[in-house]
Amino acid sequence: MTTPDLHARTRAALPDWLALYYAEPIELTHGEGRHVWDADGNKYLDFFGGILTTMTAHALPEVTKAVSEQAGRIIHSSTLYLNRPMVELAERVAQLSGIPDARVFFTTSGTEANDAALLLATSYRRSNQVLALRNSYHGRSFSAVGITGNRGWSPTALSPLQTLYVHGGVRSRGPYAHLSDAEFTDACVADLRDMLGQTRGDVAALIAEPVQGVGGFTSPPDGLYARFRDVLQEHGILWISDEVQTGWGRTGDHFWGWQAHGQSGPPDILTFAKGIGNGMSIGGVVARAEVMNCLDANSISTFGGSPITMAAGLANLSYLLEHDLQGNARRVGGLLIERLRAIAVHTPGVREVRGRGLMIGVELAKPGTDEAAPDAATAVLEACRAGGLLIGKGGGHNTSVLRIAPPLSLTVAEAEEGAAILEQALREHA
User: Fold this and answer.
1) What is the predicted pLDDT for the residue at 74?
2) How confident is the model at residue 170 (pLDDT cuts 50, 70, 90)?
3) Is residue 5 predicted with pLDDT exceeding 80?
4) N or C, which end of the chain is more exposed by having fewer CB within 10 Å?
5) In whole angstroms, what is the distance from residue 273 CA to residue 50 CA?
6) pLDDT, tens digit, 9 for 90 and up, residues 304-358
């Protein structure tokens, strides 16, 4: 079967709104390390990892072995039965989370994890009011779309929740962009207090990504969410940290994104997914026992915590920790960010290079302005693919941010190779 044939069949069988990259979409057939190959035999350096999901490496032997061995025993049982791999991974995640007396519930995706977190928070607080950040993204379920502050990924305004949006997720755009970090933080805290003064006073939770993913890898100054937490605690409001993209050491400086804002303690609820499974479908929620156990009805998960995905997660997490991939993300990511910033100095179409660790955003704008340049972003994405590099894109009102998030085992040589391909694409199209 040719790739065009598969593209035509995809469009005939799947929804029109299912997004595909590239004017001529590619079929990835296999991968190894930080590289993937398409159906035509083309080799690519992977700087997007299946949307920040291939966290350690493609075809990591430790993970494939664990999956194969578990598949040879039993693939599925559901949470109605005791599940040793699920308990073992839950114990490790609870300990790593930083949340005291933590309980863990496994799901199959980040969307489902955030959905479960919202169920917990609204049940615990007996309120459907939720605070979210402008420019945010938390998934594609009905409830998650209802707290998404990014119109490009929010197909409906209908929601079971009353959502109120506060400032803070985007540092370099908006009404507070001109302020210093300290002044920016003070203004966002004042905005939060003002927002709470307009509610009934029984808001359930604030949900926030430490680094906004789909929003273009934007983030507030360190410590902002700690200041938010101080205000929230005055009202008994919970803090949900959406770590679906920032967890497991990707930011380099911290294992969890919330730790850049940990001066007032850990979040009440933490959600995770993507990287822990290295491609297997794992998501989850961590919460202190009082919050996790607040539901007064029975529940199960048919596929969350399945033996085969838990085996993959355990092997992947062990590899991550034993090889200090967080440290590698800090070192190699730091070099890559500086290399990209050096390129940006000589590229008028690059408005900003931001990020930390191996979570880097390159925001494009029309030269000499702050106006987004989504066409340029698409052209650079295409040129990178032609040059043998896969990257992502995102952004707020217009998709003009290039998203760079390779596996955390990226080498210095691979970082330089990818930067060179991106530099050429930017010079030609940005």
Assistant:
1) 97
2) very high
3) yes
4) N
5) 13
6) 999 999 999 999 999 999 999 999 999 999 999 999 999 999 999 999 999 999 9
The span from the CA of 251 to the CA of 375, in Å, is: 28
Per-residue CA distances from 212 to 130, 162, 173, 207, 209 (Å): 18, 21, 14, 12, 5
With 80 as the cut, is the pLDDT of residue 16 above it?
yes
For residue 252, how many C-alpha atoms fall within 13 Å in the half-sphere facing its CB? Answer: 21
Is the CB of residue 311 less than 8 Å from the CB of residue 281?
Answer: no
The residues near 64 (Cβ < 8 Å, ≥ 6 apart) are none
What tokens appear for 14 in the block?
């799947």
Q: What's phi and psi for 269, nearest 5 deg? A: -135, 140
Ordered DSSP codes for 133-152: ETT----SSHHHHTT---GG
The confidence score (pLDDT) of residue 1 equals: 57
3-state SS string for 371-387: CECHHHHHHHHHHHHHC
Q: What is the C-alpha to C-alpha distance for residues 145 and 243, in angstroms, rounded to an integer? A: 17
* pTM for the full predicted model: 0.95
Q: Are 261 and 254 in contact (CB under 8 A)?
A: no
pLDDT above 60 (res 106): yes
CB 317 within 8 A of CB 92: yes
When pLDDT is cut at 50, 70 and 90, the band that residue 198 belongs to is: confident
Amino acid at 15: P
368 bridge partner residues: none
The alpha carbons of the chain give a radius of gyration, in whole angstroms, of 21
Q: Mean pLDDT throughout 55-84?
A: 97
Q: Based on the number of CB atoms within 10 Å of its own CB, is 191 exposed (0-12), middle (13-18) or buried (19 or more)?
A: middle
Q: Which two three-digit tokens encode residue 62?
A: 């430790």
Residue 325 tokens, joined: 């991939």
Q: Where are the alpha helices (DSSP H) in 236-300?
A: 289-292
Q: What are the structure tokens assigned to 272, written together?
A: 């995770």
Q: In what order do the strands lie in the sheet with 205-208?
A: 102-107, 283-288, 269-272, 238-242, 205-208, 129-133, 162-166
